Amino acid sequence: MTEEKSVKLGEIIREFGLEVVRGGADYENVPLRALDINRPGLPLTGFFEHFDTERLLLIGLTEHTYLSGLTLEKRRSIFDQLLTYPVPALILTRGLEAYPECLEMAEKHDRTVLRSTQQTSIFMSALISSMYNRLAPQITRSGVMLEIYGEGVLIQGESGVGKSEVAIELIKRGHRLVADDAVEIKLTSHNTLMATAPELIRGYMELRGIGVIDVIRLLGMGAIKLNQQIDMVINLEPWNDKAVYDRFGLESHFTDILGVQIPSVTIPVKPGRNLASIVEVAAMNNRNRKMGHNAAQELTDRMDRLFQEQLERGMD
After folding, report:
1. Can you give the pTM of this predicted structure?
2. Kindly report the CA angle at 177 between 291 and 283, in degrees rounded to 5?
3. Phi and psi dihedrals of 18, rounded to 5?
4. Cα angle vertex 81, ends 80, 86, to 5°?
5. What pLDDT does residue 3 have?
6. Which residue numbers in the chain have pLDDT < 70?
7. Which of 94, 184, 234, 244 is most buried, by the most CB atoms less than 10 A from its CB?
8. Rounded CA gap, 308 and 21, in Å?
9. Phi, psi of 223 (to 5 degrees)
10. Using CA atoms, how far apart are residues 215 and 154, in angstroms rounded to an integer?
11. Which sign does the torsion angle of CA 39, 45, 48, 49 carry?
């Protein structure tokens, strides 16, 4: 289940070092839930269709210059209309001065006015990125998350199938643990998935028969990684003699997480199989495919060419 999140305006003020020109009532605790930002070009002309009152307002040099060409009464009317809406805050960039009419209407409607010294485009880009990272859709999945040869691998499977046992062997081989048991997954602004561990259990693993272990103390700081993009999903399941498993790898399978299709494979588990090595090969093969090499397809093409050559020789 996805979580509806919010961030307090005070956190954004502190992150970007914003100057509080005029603070509304309890402005630091105002919740922000919108991922995007409003640059009120059309609203400054009186057009308020589809105006999102949950977004922060951003006035840069373009808007400020437009307002400078208006009469005092026109500016007062525009800010009166603009700040009638319950916007979280109005932010001026480039260190621009707030018009007295703006502050007058902010006082009238009890709105917050902030200021940044950064250029508008740079500030807006950084602010949207920060908001997205804080408010992006997020879920928690059961499994183990590892970085293997630079690939982010999420290992899933039913309880007791051996996920943590495989993970500890991979960590001893030099790969890094991101999360065990519970994996927090967040959708990024680049439509990729970033995984991390809940703060409470970060760096810990549970091994049946041994109990909880501290990976950092036993194997060193280099054995863990704080976060990692998910590049593939490996599903471990008990071996089923009646099941038909993919032996050639021509078909591509995917797992949907937060609307993102992640390549996935299913590995059957039974005594005698070296799962750690198989998972390593799966990670390397996934990386190979991303680079444009598909061993199964290449072998199929070679076989097709061979059969075609033999068929043509037979016809001669």
Report:
1. 0.71
2. 25
3. -75, 145
4. 95
5. 47
6. 1-4, 246-250, 316
7. 234
8. 77
9. -85, -5
10. 18
11. negative
